[in-house]
Amino acid sequence: MTFLFPPKFDTSIVPYFAFSFVVIILNFQDAFVGSDWSYPFDARIIIYGKNSVGKSNLGLAIFDIVTHLTDKNVTPGLYDYYLNSDGCTSASFAYVFQFDNNTVEYRYSKGKKRELLTEDISINGKLLFNYDYQSKKGDFNNLKELNPTLNLDLDDIDSVLRYVINNTSLSELHPLKKLFRYVSSMLWFRSLDENRYIGFKNNTNDYLDFLLEGETLDEFQSFLNRSGVEEKLIIKEDTDGIRRLYFDMPTPLPFMKTASSGTKALYTFFYWYKTAADVSMMFIDEFDAYYHYELSESIVLILEKMTNTQVILTSHNTNLLSNRIMRPDCYFILSDTGITSLVNATGRELREGHNLEKLYMSGEFNE
Q1: What's the CA gap between 280 and 70, in Å, rounded?
Q2: Does one domain contain both 105 and 249?
Q3: Averaged pLDDT of the chain
């Protein structure tokens, strides 16, 4: 099965996006078996699909690269059931990055314990190395040109690529450095539970107190008010000496214990929006599960301002299907047979005046 993400950015408007990100993933959990998926990837996209079709697994598959190339956080339990349950013994991944005029192709496979079985990387079609962790054999001829003194005793190495990047003096403009920065800045989180996330940070020790300093509390208060939450907030020091967030009532109420699920989801979104400003890719799973449809649109418009970030959202909210919010080729439908944009899911030429939601609900985009 294949996932293809070449972005279609106007680089004269957003010069930062001089790269593309391609993912090819084979045999990753049940939802991905037997499909060959290839689709364009713009700066911000929303993915729709029925329950249990694989939207969450898609995000986990894309972010697998973070789990072994970085030390960033991976919330325990997210990858417990890793391989396809139909008896496959490995999962294979391939990523293609385009940095300026340089194309980096990175492939690897993993076993049931998520340990690397094979790994290889090419730059502009030239193999840098390949390695088989089971036979302990590989081709390192071109790697020796990059770093002639690199110790190739790899017995205790979890990832050759990570080892090479960490032990080779490279220019910050080198494609491997750019790849590592991009992967280290990827962020996955979901709104359905309290701050489960992959990537970007090693920890979120500031999750409960990032509002305590400066003007951040006022910003969050304003954000909640614009989102329809009218209660005022205060910081109050508890008897244990710890300052915490409260609703400002005659009898103050602790925010984290009394806020609704939707308000807590807004807190989590605001936390990442404020503390992950330089994230390279943001995947928000079920981003609006607790939101009113008008609030969902407001969040999408906020994300539009993150011009240096590629954003993937999953949703069931068809109210967002509007040319007023995004172009039709930024909306995707995930099904048992594949994934496709609205543009490619119909023979109709979609125009600005079309009501995308009505077309979707009427079955226009059914495969």
Answers
A1: 14
A2: no
A3: 82
